[in-house]
């Protein structure tokens, strides 16, 4: 992408590791290293898997370097750890998020929209839960837990399928979200679309 993102925020860690590990093969370089790293620096990583994959790139290493680590040399090193200051616990104001689900791909087509009120700082998953509580017949959904967080497998009874190469794609202003539903935090007035899609 033009802004330095490689795939999405979850693929960035491994992509940076791969590109750095093979940098001598790029002449001239076809990717903007500084721009890609600026995306990583600006992102608030929260998922352990994403952090584990991006950390090696941030220290100029890759998973390939693990085979050559000299454990004896690093044994004496004990970095001083300083905990970040605790964030102030402020009050969260209510916000309104518009949420729609659409299927024009399989079976009986449908399109439903709703507006839900949640506290600012709520995740998209929490928005979906409120929508499902208020109208379970329409907005019910299912997730499965993965190492990357909750993954939406079904909405309105329509399940994604690896056999059919289908999945639920989440967009805001026409652009795919670069975070999962358990991390992404919609802003007031935002319209989130869940569209049954194919890959």
From TrEMBL:
Superkingdom field? Eukaryota
Q: Which GO terms describe its molecular function?
A: cobalamin binding
Keyword annotations for this protein, in alphabetical order, are:
Cobalt, Cobalt transport, Ion transport, Secreted, Signal, Transport
The protein depicted here goes by the name IF factor
> Could you say which residues bind cyanocob(III)alamin here?
8, 53, 151-152, 177, 199
Which organism is this protein's natural source?
Answer: Sylvietta virens (Green crombec)
The record's section on InterPro entries has: Cbl-bd_prot, Cobalamin_Transport, Transcobalamin-like_C
UniProt record similarity statement = Belongs to the eukaryotic cobalamin transport proteins family.
């Amino acid at each position: 992408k033009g802004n330095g993102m490689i795939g999405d925020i979850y693929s960035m860690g491994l992509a940076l590791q791969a590109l750095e590990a093979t940098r001598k093969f790029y002449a001239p370089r076809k990717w903007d290293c500084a721009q890609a790293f600026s995306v990583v620096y600006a992102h608030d990583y929260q998922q352990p898997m994403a952090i584990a994959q991006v950390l090696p790139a941030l220290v100029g290493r890759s998973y390939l370097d693990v085979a050559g680590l000299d454990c004896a040399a690093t044994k004496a090193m004990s970095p001083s750890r300083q905990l970040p200051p605790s964030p102030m616990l402020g009050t969260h104001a209510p916000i309104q998020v518009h949420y729609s689900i659409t299927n024009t791909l399989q079976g009986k087509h449908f399109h439903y929209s709703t507006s839900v009120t949640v506290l600012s700082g709520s995740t998209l998953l929490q928005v979906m839960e409120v929508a499902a509580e208020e109208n379970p017949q329409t907005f019910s959904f299912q997730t499965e837990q993965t190492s990357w967080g909750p993954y939406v497998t079904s909405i309105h009874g329509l399940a994604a399928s690896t056999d059919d190469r289908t999945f639920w794609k989440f967009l805001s202003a026409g652009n795919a979200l670069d975070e999962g539903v358990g991390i992404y935090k919609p802003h007031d007035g935002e319209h989130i679309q869940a569209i049954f899609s194919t890959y």
